[in-house]
Backbone:
């Protein structure tokens, strides 16, 4: 819902300010049947993906688990649009069905940090970035939310001018316009701060932790690599995050495991191995202690509340 309104509203405002219809948009779904958003709001599509009108851009908006009811036909249409020169993109979880169609092969994508691990598992050959926006030739991918607004502001500047772009941003009190290479903000585990506010040694250590999810590294080796003593690293972590380096590292691995539990079809054993545990029972024990339920229980509960996959993702 946020991605959809963030895409449409700045374009509507740009048309009004320019006093001309520079931008037009249509809601397209796999069929003409109404589509329910993740917030429960129903949308009636203007067209089905089988009969798309002349398009310059097509953006997919969906959850990561969205699939076409008829994958052969839906994915075929996306590949055909690519061959005809249409710019294709995905917002938030929309990069998943876009990747499943094959049109992201050979391109880099912006993956939201909460989906990143699950995306890497399903599409190991596609390079993900931590950017809020990624534009790679005729592909535009956005981490989601307000970053979609930033992409639209960029398109407004390209098709109109910078003054109208600025006026649109001010209409909506959008505080600043982020360039595509701006990195996503990530929450610091167990804290009300974001990772970009951490001291340099702690940020470096967390980066090393993130690079060693499957093959855990000793905290002492991390301290040596960033040229601080283990005791000083412990002190800095406690000051910046309220946690010890070891606990922070374990929680980070469990958060990655949770992404895969929620957004991938990997078995619990595969998830355990991918996050540095040698058995599913070991992962389950730590997972339950951290999140209050077992991985299998969380997957079952999440599946119970998922929107039916009988309809495809609603691009716009």
Residues:
């Amino acid at each position: 819902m946020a991605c959809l309104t963030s895409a449409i509203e700045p374009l509507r405002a740009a048309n009004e300010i320019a006093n001309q219809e520079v931008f037009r948009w249509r809601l397209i779904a796999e069929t003409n049947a109404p589509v329910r958003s993740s917030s429960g709001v129903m949308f009636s599509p203007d067209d089905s993906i089988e009969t798309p009108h002349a398009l310059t851009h097509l953006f997919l908006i969906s959850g990561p688990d969205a699939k076409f009811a008829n994958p052969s036909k839906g994915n075929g249409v996306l590949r055909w649009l690519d061959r005809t020169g249409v710019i294709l993109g995905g917002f938030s979880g929309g990069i998943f069905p876009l990747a499943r169609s094959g049109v992201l092969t050979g391109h880099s994508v912006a993956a939201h940090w909460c989906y990143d691990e699950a995306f890497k598992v399903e599409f190991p050959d596609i390079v993900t970035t931590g950017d809020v926006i990624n534009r790679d030739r005729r592909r535009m991918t956005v981490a989601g939310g307000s970053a979609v607004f930033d992409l639209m502001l960029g398109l407004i500047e390209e098709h109109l001018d910078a003054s109208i772009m600025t006026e649109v941003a001010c209409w909506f009190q959008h505080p600043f316009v982020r360039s595509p290479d701006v990195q996503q903000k990530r929450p610091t585990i167990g804290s009300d701060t974001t990772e970009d506010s951490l001291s340099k040694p702690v940020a470096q250590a967390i980066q090393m932790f993130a690079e060693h999810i499957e093959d855990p590294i000793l905290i002492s080796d991390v301290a040596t690599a960033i040229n601080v003593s283990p005791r000083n690293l412990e002190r800095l972590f406690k000051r910046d995050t309220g946690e010890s380096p070891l606990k922070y590292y374990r929680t980070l691995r469990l958060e990655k495991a949770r992404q895969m539990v929620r957004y991938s079809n990997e078995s619990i054993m595969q998830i355990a191995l991918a996050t540095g545990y040698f058995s599913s029972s070991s992962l389950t024990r730590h997972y339950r202690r951290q999140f209050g339920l077992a991985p299998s229980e969380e997957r079952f509960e999440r599946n119970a509340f998922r929107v039916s996959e009988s309809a495809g993702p609603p691009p716009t």
Q: What stands out?
A: Residues 307-316 have pLDDT under 50 and may be disordered. Residues 245-263 form the longest helix (19 residues).
